[in-house]
Design goal:
elongated; Rossmann fold
Length: 585
């Protein structure tokens, strides 16, 4: 059933290119008719030559002219068939890749978090490439192969139904062999594809984190794990290749039986009854060869197509994943102004069996600075994920001035936010491209934003200043420089709500003081959520939320919480002790 649904999935894309498909079918028909008509001309020519004491030259001349015309038409049809198939396959692969890329942007963050990035890359690149090869072989050989089989049977039946019956009786054996092997190869190719995807994910992870691997001396462990993966992939590939390689010799053996049967039966017919001429026997032998040849090709294609179907199944599963949904009447324009953000009795957990945030409530007035502190795993980042709608609350609701944030599309809602995270993200492109992210800002605006976060000086020391090319993920920049560029983005966008998640963690102390001053100016009149581990950076926050096990256990400004002498004071004083210890070493 899986292969049937996957085949239907592929056909939806194929039928979108109906004109190319129709062209391919017509060209395949012309090619087959031309290929089958040529042996008839050859047989008649042989009969003209083997007449007793006479070669009928006028007849031979006509046959040669007809043969040349048929060959020319067939060559043109084959050329158009090849072009149509290539364009059809390329078009299908293009549409699939486009849909996969669009799908990735529509998948919930929970799916991205729970699947290795290398697996997604493997589905989009390696699996689609394998699918492309399988489709091209299928369109090129299956069309003409099936039509050749049906055409040769029809022509042979018209010439001599008895010999045709011999051919038909032997044919099911070829189908049985090809069908038996293709069932085996599908499962084996599915295992091979899964192992290959795991290996691609592993390689992607190791290459992108090579500094960490070397810093912890994990080279040998990783090589050992890679060798084990490689060994499993080798065994899966060998099994799949072995079974698929059985198809061609098996069908060739059956085809040889067909050819021998036609030869013997035809020769006996000529000797005993004279029911066939030498030329007609030549036509039959040519047809027998043409009839059996597609079985070899189709059986070979079937094994490759099983591999392609296994890859298509993985692609189909990705495209069938549940997408992010919006309310039908969701507003598409951002909320221009608000006075209150209200977390109202919200509950959330990443997995049903492990509760994280329960019955959480919080009111944040416009322009307030809210700092969120607490031990690792207490729910600080989860709270930001819910605020940004990376995840939706399971119970309760988040409101902006009595309007549920779900009343807006995610795109419209997120236009209110600017984020600076501890983890930086830069793409390959110029410094300016990475600050503007493709939006229309003038050079003066970009420079002003970079000056505010003190990134301008290091940018101007680069070879081409703001036009300097940055490698993938900012590989030619320090962590601090990358973080300053991410801060510059927020300075440039100037959003009404700020989220700062340890935004200055990679910056030196001197620059941090300057950036904190710039943030203080930026946050004036804006609602700000600050996730902090260094508590000295959030002393000026209007409200500090102290979280533990998904709940707010303390709330107030710095002075109030210190006077209470509770959990916040413990955290704060432990960090001062740590600083004093560090300074004494």
């Amino acid at each position: 059933m899986k292969s049937k649904s996957t085949f239907s999935f592929l056909m939806k894309y194929v039928f979108k290119k109906w004109f190319l498909l129709l062209t391919a079918v017509i060209c395949a028909l012309v090619t087959v008719v031309g290929t089958l008509y040529l042996p008839i001309l050859t047989g008649h020519g042989i009969d003209y030559v083997v007449r007793k004491g006479l070669v009928f030259f006028p007849g031979l001349k006509d046959i040669i002219i007809q043969a040349l015309i048929v060959i020319a038409v067939t060559i043109v049809a084959q050329l158009l068939l090849s072009l149509s198939n290539n364009r059809l396959t390329s078009g299908v692969v293009y549409e699939i890749r486009k849909d996969v890329m669009a799908k990735i942007h529509k998948l919930p963050i929970s799916y991205i978090d729970s699947h290795a990035s290398g697996d997604l890359v493997s589905r989009m690149i390696a699996d689609v490439e394998t699918l492309s090869d399988g489709l091209l072989m299928g369109f090129t050989q299956v069309f003409t192969g099936v039509l050749t089989i049906l055409g040769t049977l029809a022509f042979m039946f018209l010439m001599n139904w008895k010999i045709t019956l011999v051919v038909v009786l032997v044919t099911p054996l070829s189908f049985f062999v090809a069908g038996f092997i293709s069932k085996k190869t599908y499962n084996l190719f599915a295992i091979q594809t899964k192992e290959r995807s795991g290996q691609v994910s592993f390689i992607n992870e190791m290459v992108s984190n090579q500094k960490i691997v070397r810093a912890f001396g994990k080279e040998e462990d990783n090589l050992k794990e890679f060798r084990e993966m490689n060994e499993r992939l080798k065994k899966a590939s060998l099994k799949a290749t072995f079974f698929s390689s059985l198809t061609n010799p098996s069908t060739r053996f059956v085809n040889s039986i067909v050819y021998a049967s036609v030869t013997i039966f035809g020769a006996v017919s000529i000797i005993l009854t004279g029911g066939l001429t030498v030329g007609e026997l030549t036509i039959f032998l040519s047809y027998a060869n043409q009839y059996t040849k597609p079985f070899n090709e189709i059986s070979g294609v079937l094994t490759e197509f099983q591999n392609a179907l296994a890859c298509a199944e993985r692609i189909r599963k990705l495209l069938d994943e549940e997408e992010i949904t919006e309310k039908e009447d969701a507003k598409t324009e951002k909320k221009e102004d608000f006075n209150l953000i209200d977390f109202k009795d919200i509950s959330f957990s990443y997995t049903p069996e492990q509760r994280l945030i329960e019955n959480f409530s919080l009111e944040v007035m416009k322009g307030k600075r809210i700092a969120i502190v607490g031990p690792t795993g207490c729910g600080k980042t989860t709270l930001i994920n819910l605020l940004m709608r990376f995840y939706d609350v399971r119970e309760g609701e988040i409101l902006m001035d009595d309007e549920n944030i779900k009343d807006y599309t995610r795109k419209a809602y997120r236009e209110n936010f600017g984020m600076v995270l501890q983890e930086t993200w830069l793409r390959k492109g110029t410094v300016k491209d990475n600050v503007t992210l493709g939006q229309d800002f003038s050079d003066a605006e970009v420079e002003e934003a970079c000056r505010k976060c003190h990134a301008h000086s290091f940018i101007m020391r680069m070879p081409k200043g703001y036009d300097t090319e940055i490698t993938e993920d900012g590989g030619n920049l320090s962590n601090g420089q990358k973080q300053l560029l991410c801060i510059a983005r927020v300075m440039l966008m100037n959003p009404p709500i700020l989220i700062l998640d340890e935004a200055t963690s990679s910056i030196d102390t001197r620059t941090e003081l300057k950036v904190q001053d710039a943030f203080a100016k930026l946050m004036k009149g804006k609602t700000s959520f600050i996730v902090a581990h260094r508590l000295s950076t959030i002393k000026n926050a209007d409200t500090i939320l102290v979280m533990k096990d998904g709940n707010i256990i303390e709330q107030g400004d710095h002075d109030e919480l210190m006077k209470k002498g509770g959990f916040y004071k413990e955290l704060y004083m432990s960090q001062w002790v740590d600083e004093e210890v560090k300074q004494s070493i």
